[in-house]
Design a protein that fits this description.
Blueprint (H helix, E strand, L loop, with lengths): L2 H14 L9 H11 L3 H26 L4 H20 L1 H10 L4 E3 L10 E3 L6
Antiparallel strand pairs: 1-2
Helix pairs in contact: 2-3, 4-5
Length: 126
């Protein structure tokens, strides 16, 4: 890829954060990241970048080698978005999704003396 195309892709990614869907969430997400650790925003950015690169590499290499066509991939993604929209619009489906999801809670160690926090999945009882 040419340097100009790479810079254009970077600029497009940076400008995408200015969209009306993302911009209001930036202070919340970055604030939560900073409250956990001063390098939290950098870790958040690195995690997002690595996950997008991993998915892109999977689709570009392994996915196409097993016959995953771009049209099929796009169709499945569209169906998943449509299903999510239907769930959000129908209160009964929202309740069913809520009842079947797993609640995670954060538990810190008893002395909390700098030990890392552990995510656990409690028994789901509703």
């Amino acid at each position: 890829m040419a340097t100009g195309a790479s810079l254009f892709a970077l600029l497009a990614g940076v400008l995408s954060t200015l969209s009306p869907c993302v911009l209001p969430l930036l202070p919340l997400v970055l604030g939560a990241a900073v409250s956990e650790h001063r390098l939290g925003p950098a870790a958040l950015a690195a995690g997002l970048a690595v996950s997008f690169v991993a998915i892109g590499l999977f689709v570009a290499t392994i996915g196409f080698s097993i016959g995953l066509d771009a049209g099929i991939f796009r169709g499945v993604a569209a169906l998943l978005l449509l299903a999510g929209g239907v769930v959000l619009m129908v209160p009964r489906l929202q309740q069913r999704m809520d009842n079947t999801s797993i609640d995670f809670k954060e538990i810190s160690s008893a002395d909390d003396g700098g030990h890392p926090r552990i995510l656990t999945c409690p028994n789901h009882a509703r």
